[in-house]
Design brief:
By secondary structure, chain A is an all-alpha fold. Chain A contains 15 helices and two strands. The mean pLDDT of chain A is 86. Chain B has twelve helices and no strands. The longest helix of chain B is centred in the C-terminal third of the chain and has 37 residues. The chains are: A mainly alpha (322), B mainly alpha (297). At the A-B interface, α1, α7, α8, α12 and α13 of A face α6, α10, α11 and α12 of B.
């Protein structure tokens, strides 16, 4: 077996149990909660026969051990419960929301990587006034709660100026096709993506700046400067290239933060992803869906970390040997 | 130029070792304007939280003290919300809530994080491996969502919110603590303590821990910050104690009236941002001060 395959398998062995742990944690939390777990697993339901059927199905009258076996086998068959309020399986409700959330997250990630890397490099190269201003701005950017930033952006651009829609993903009442549909989604995506990107730009800038500063102290930079290579080339070619790996990995490992960011941002802009679903479910006390979103969200983040970890090993062969 | 800087940082570090605390403190302020700004902001915020009852003129959360949706006027400088509550009053009491949540939940996470970090750092072998694996896992799982689920199913009250935020945010602290212990336990004075036959508990808590604490302080400050943001985020999604004024919960209410009443969102969020900016500047300034390599400008 090649070392790379070996490395990938080792990573899989590391990450897959995490998914199991998330599922076990959910199980334990529900059972540890005060009161009858039926209330949480089924939801606030008046229909007696439905509650009875669900209790039967989930084995809630049986010992904890049996309940656990039933729960685990349900989860592995993709059954995460049923939302009585919405007459739909939890898995289906969540899965159909994932693409919208991913679209928002990936767009924001792309914008912020582009802007953050450029700005961060400039900040590191030009110490002094430019650097101080930029890093102060990035601290402010990291600090401002993005859901509030979203609200302010919405008030200014949608309510006061009226140049962007108040929310949603497509214009209501129009049956757009093809290019028109694409442009309509893009139009609705602008404000939420901008909100999420601003938060992440600050983060990427901070990481890039630190990483480039570190790279600029290396011997090969001294060599490059001694050879008379122009400073801009030294910074962007020699330093940035070597500084980029930590930036990329940090961005990947930051998926969890970005997912939570998307969940809050979606709530502001009524973007029809997992966040809006979560918000509505909390309001309706639809607990099966809330639990499902925790499970799915955690699994998405674990998988993203796994992918970044494996890519890291492919880019940098030294990692594989550890 | 590079060499000079490093040389200067090094001699500075050497010189510093024997200096008085007072001199050090004044140096922090002069060297690090960001730290100073952060310090002032945090100080003002704490004072505002303390004197809230004296600078407000309505009881917190009292409804119908004004006409609903009144924009900012003299007696209600931040406006009046949908239920006729004074936003200014609730914002000031909301600062209190934020600070209480921040400090108490960080106390919880410090207790858990230090305990786990200490054990993993002091004892090597299987125990260390197991504890660090758990810590790594806990770092990956989105802490915000875990806290949300805990509060949602255990009940939305103030105490549960603090405990939930506390028990999800220990992993970062555990990691830093372990790293500190790993390096400190190799030092001669620990060898000496072992040689004279001190018990493990004594060595850990009386010899090593006091030396490891300074490294944790800036992260504890940043953790207070995270806790405040998590509380606000939960409040924004409607996971909050309705009987406690909360900046996050105010933003949740404001969300339904963005078109009608901008001030309902603007002021609570602005104050929340200022708190977080202050704590971030303070924490970053401390980290920069404690790590001379970053302190070049």
């Amino acid at each position: 077996m090649s070392p790379l395959m070996f490395f990938i398998i080792r990573r899989l062995i590391q990450y897959v149990p995490m998914i199991l742990v998330v599922i076990i944690v959910t199980f334990l939390l529900v059972r540890l909660a005060p009161g009858d777990p039926t209330y949480i697993l089924v939801g606030e339901v008046a229909d007696e026969s439905f509650v009875k059927a669900m209790r039967e199905k989930l084995g809630l009258d049986r010992p904890l051990y049996d309940q656990f076996i039933i729960y685990i086998s349900n989860v592995f068959r993709g059954d995460l419960g049923y939302s009585y309020l919405r007459s739909e399986s939890v898995a289906k409700l969540i899965v159909e929301r994932i693409p919208a959330t991913l679209l928002l997250v990936l767009t924001a990630m792309f914008i912020s990587a582009l802007v953050g890397i450029i700005v961060g490099t400039i900040a590191a190269a030009r110490r002094g006034a430019v650097d101080l201003t930029l890093s102060t701005l990035s601290i402010i950017g990291i600090s401002i709660p993005y859901f509030w930033l979203g609200q302010i952006i919405l008030i200014v651009f949608a309510v006061w100026l009226g140049i962007f829609p108040l929310g949603g993903m497509v214009s209501v009442g129009y049956e757009y096709q093809g290019l028109q549909y694409f442009l309509d989604v893009l139009y609705h995506l602008t404000l939420p993506a901008m909100t999420l990107a601003i938060f992440n730009i600050a983060f990427t800038t901070k990481i890039t700046r630190g990483s480039v500063l570190e790279a600029l102290t290396q011997d090969y930079i001294v060599t490059a400067r001694a050879k008379g290579i122009p400073e801009s080339r030294v910074v962007f070619r020699h330093a940035l290239r070597n500084a980029l790996i930590p930036v990329v990995t940090y961005t990947g490992f930051n998926t969890g933060v970005l997912l939570v960011g998307a969940i809050l941002t979606e709530t502001v802009f009524a973007w029809p992803g997992m966040g809006s679903l979560l918000y509505d479910s909390i309001r309706l006390r639809d607990y099966p869906v809330v639990l499902g979103i925790f499970n799915y969200g955690s699994i998405i983040v674990i998988l993203a970390n796994l992918i970044v970890d494996v890519l890291y090993g492919i880019i940098d062969p030294r990692i594989r040997l550890r | 130029m590079k060499m000079n800087n490093q040389g200067a940082a090094y001699t500075y570090h050497l010189k510093n070792v024997g200096l008085q605390l007072v001199y050090k403190t004044s140096k922090v302020f002069r060297l690090n304007p960001r730290f100073t700004v952060g310090f002032i902001i945090v100080l003002v915020v704490i004072i505002l939280a303390l004197v809230a009852p004296f600078i407000t003129w309505y009881p917190p959360l009292k409804t119908l003290v004004g006409k609903p949706f009144t924009p900012p006027v003299a007696l209600q400088p931040f406006g009046v919300d949908d239920l006729g509550r004074d936003i200014y009053t609730n914002v000031l009491y909301g600062i209190r809530t934020s600070l209480i949540v921040g400090v108490s939940s960080v106390t919880i996470s410090l207790a858990i994080g230090i305990l786990i970090g200490v054990i993993a750092g002091y004892y090597s072998g299987l125990l260390e491996d197991v504890l660090m694996r758990i810590t790594d896992m806990a770092l990956i799982i989105p802490q915000f969502l875990l806290a949300l689920v805990i509060v949602a199913i255990f009940g939305q009250n103030f105490q549960n919110i603090i405990i939930a935020i506390g028990i999800v945010s220990w992993p970062g602290i555990a990691r830093i603590m372990r790293a500190e212990f790993l390096s400190i336990k190799e030092r001669p004075f620990v060898e000496a303590a072992k040689a004279v036959g001190l018990t493990d508990v004594k060595i850990i808590f009386e010899e090593i821990l006091p030396n490891a604490i300074p490294a944790i302080i800036p992260y504890a400050v940043l953790q207070v910050n995270t806790a405040i943001l998590v509380e606000a985020g939960l409040g924004f999604l409607g996971i909050a104690d309705p009987n406690v004024p909360s900046l996050g919960l105010m933003l949740n209410t404001a969300q339904q009236y963005l078109v009608r009443a901008w001030f309902m969102a603007f002021f609570p969020g602005l104050v929340l941002s200022i708190i977080v900016i202050g704590l971030n500047l303070l924490g970053d300034g401390l980290i920069e001060y404690l790590n001379p390599r970053l302190r070049k400008r």
